[in-house]
Fold this protein.
Amino acid sequence: MAKSSGLGDNFYIAGYDLSGDLGSVSLSGGPATLEVTGIDKSAYERIGGVRTGSVSWKAFFNPAIGAAHERFSSLPTADVICTYMRGTALGNPAACQVSKQINYDGTRADSGEFTFAVEAQCNGFGLEWGQQLTAGKRTDSAATNGASIDTAASASFGAQAYLQVFSMTGTDATVKIQDSADNSSFADVTGLTFTQVTAGPTSERIATASGATVRRYLRAVTTTTGGFSSLVFAVVVVKNQVAVSF
């Protein structure tokens, strides 16, 4: 992938696509830094601490049902999952975070612009960068094997995955991730089957065991027991290249 702009990005939160209501998004993550400067030093010394992350954005005032004001003004106390899509192409980078929304601060400028500053701080896992297993939002009308992505090699450090479900019509649908060594024969990845969906909007984070082997090729598939006619959803997978702990 060559250098690119941030044009055409998407932002989802708790099963809602609020891309059109946001003017900017800021992402930060990594280990918290711990200051351990000795009295014999002339510069700060720091070491890495626990994983952390933050997502903040500027939202335009939109009071329509399901739009920015309704979603953010309630200041939910439960966790919300944020998903930032760098473009909407299969395999593109994406950042996800299990979050606590901490504010909804409005500013009415003298130009007449009415915007809100919102921040979501990580809860439990930090900010995680991965790859899109759907090209932005995907719509399935029946059980479907999605197109695969090539992650270059097998790795034995486990994986995490995020699901955003925007809407669902039907009895049930299950979204899961499969892997393959040859891009031909696929099998379910243990730990990467999301909870059965019976309604939307909803969102979820799941993970494999920390030392699980995840093979080179990955895809998102949908299955059903009772049938569905429409499932609109997005999936991001985070395949660990080194050992991680949470």
The mean pLDDT is 96.
